[in-house]
Design brief:
Blueprint (H helix, E strand, L loop, with lengths): L1 H10 L3 H13 L3 H8 L8 H4 L2 H10 L6
Helix pairs in contact: 2-3
């Protein structure tokens, strides 16, 4: 799955693809990929990709994007 997402964001590096990929990385506990993607993610969050703003923040906290 990672190879497919890497290919998609190489071709189409828009926020939908980045945030959707990050959401899957969060689900998979792939914090290394999640951290790399959060370096490229820009506000506002696309809550449809994350399922909610709260989940975006929770996943971001795991990789140091947001402070408690």
């Amino acid at each position: 799955m990672r190879e497919g997402f890497d290919d998609v964001i190489a071709r189409y590096p828009d926020q939908w693809n980045l945030q959707n990929y990050a959401s899957f990385a969060c689900d998979a506990d792939d914090d290394e990929t999640l951290a790399k993607l959060f370096e490229r993610i820009r506000e506002p969050s696309l809550d449809v990709a994350w399922r909610s703003r709260a989940r975006y923040v929770t996943c971001g906290r795991r990789v140091g994007k947001f402070k408690d």
